[in-house]
Each structure stands twice: as C-alpha cells, then as structure tokens.
Amino acid sequence: MMGAESILAIGILSLAGLVVATIAALKGWQGWLELKKMELAGASHEREPSAPVAGGRIEIADLRERVRKLEAIAAGIDY
C-alpha cells in the first residue's frame, strides 16, 4: 500500500497541475476575448470610412471651386 506521504505528494502534484492548466486556460480565454474585441473594432472601422469619403468629396469640390476662382482672377475675369 501507499504511504500517507505518497498520497499527499500525489495530491499536491495533482493540485499544482490543475492550477497550471487553469491558468493556461484563462490566458487563452483572455486572448480569445482580445481577438474578438479587435475584430469588432475592425468591423466598426470598416463601416465608418463612408462618412469621411463624403466629406472628402465636399472638400475636393470646394478646392475645385477655389481653383476656378483663382484661374478667373489670373485670366482677368471678374468672378
């Protein structure tokens, strides 16, 4: 039969193994959650560029109008 010391050693080693496995599982879970957060943040960034594109179009139209005015001034036409 096994002595009390052997049973105690097996119990302690089993508990230590369980703690190590639990810590590894928790780190994996946290990593998975972080990955999902980044995916959600990336998905929201993919939808947002439509607003700046519209703003960019307005900006380009404004710049074109300014160029037309400057060309008219350079040509001597009162704008």
List the helices and strands and how they pair.
Blueprint: H1 4-47, H2 50-75
Plain-language structure description:
It contains two helices and no strands. The protein has helices spanning 4-47, 50-75. It is rod-shaped and about 110 Å long. The termini are far apart. The model has no long low-confidence stretch (mean pLDDT 86).
Quick structural overview:
This protein has 79 residues and is mainly alpha-helical. It has helices at 4-47, 50-75. Helices cover 89% and strands 0% of the residues.
Give the structural class: mainly alpha
Beta-strand share of residues: under 5%
Largest sheet, in brief, is: none
Shape: rod-shaped
Determine Rg (CA atoms, Å). 34 Å
Runs in which pLDDT lies below 50 for 5 or more consecutive residues are: none
Number of distinct helices:
2
How many structural domains does the protein architecture include? 2
Query: What is the overall pLDDT average?
Result: 86
Task: For the record, give the distance between the C-alpha atoms at the N and C termini, rounded to a whole number.
Answer: 107 Å
- Strand tally, please? 0
Helix coverage percent of residues?
over 70%
Order of helices and strands: HH
Characteristic terms for this protein:
79 residues; mainly alpha; 2 domains; 2 helices; rod-shaped
